[in-house]
């Protein structure tokens, strides 16, 4: 049986097939994406430019010779490759285990083709059943947002020692089964002080590749 890391490498290698020459590549974050970036030099052409969803991915891309552009420098991206924490059969996802959810949503929204790469451990029938939902929050709103999330039925827990690339905090919402991802993504975004939340329902992936 393959280890989780071997499965991540299989799916990351498969994602190479979606990378086109002379396109600016969108890149998410996390351990699966880290493997994907490390495989880029195996392509028969050089990836010249990318937009990264986290500082860590930016450093990893630079380490393999890819120039990293600011998201403001591009209007569209051909393809965006990113992992996820949970994926449903409908293609809804939760993300943000690495606290990069907001930048991931921004870069994903610029892309014409979002390819999500996961190993089989990420498959769920309903979001929230396996992974607490990350919510990025402006620090001064921590308690107010926590109260609102409790009213919605969740149990928010402040993520210790975590400041996002945007200077904010993360609340991880436990015990929160998400029945309607599209509605809940919007409801949480409407709480004052929320920057974004880890439900990717409006920006679903175009394809989810799962290493079984
Ligand atoms: O903030 C982190 C991202 O949403 C990641 O894409 C997600 O947590 C999946 O990461 P990994 O590939 O390490 O499981």
From TrEMBL:
One of its GO terms (cellular component) is cytosol. Its EC number is 5.3.1.6. The active site is at 104 (proton acceptor). One of its GO terms (molecular function) is ribose-5-phosphate isomerase activity. Pfam families: Rib_5-P_isom_A. It comes from the Bacteria. Pathway: Carbohydrate degradation; pentose phosphate pathway; D-ribose 5-phosphate from D-ribulose 5-phosphate (non-oxidative stage): step 1/1. InterPro entries: NagB/RpiA_transferase-like, Ribose5P_isomerase_typA_subgr, Ribose5P_isomerase_type_A. Substrate binds at residues 29-32, 82-85, 95-98, 122. Keywords: Isomerase. Catalyzes the reversible conversion of ribose-5-phosphate to ribulose 5-phosphate. HAMAP family: Rib_5P_isom_A. Homodimer. This is Ribose-5-phosphate isomerase A. It comes from Psittacicella gerlachiana.
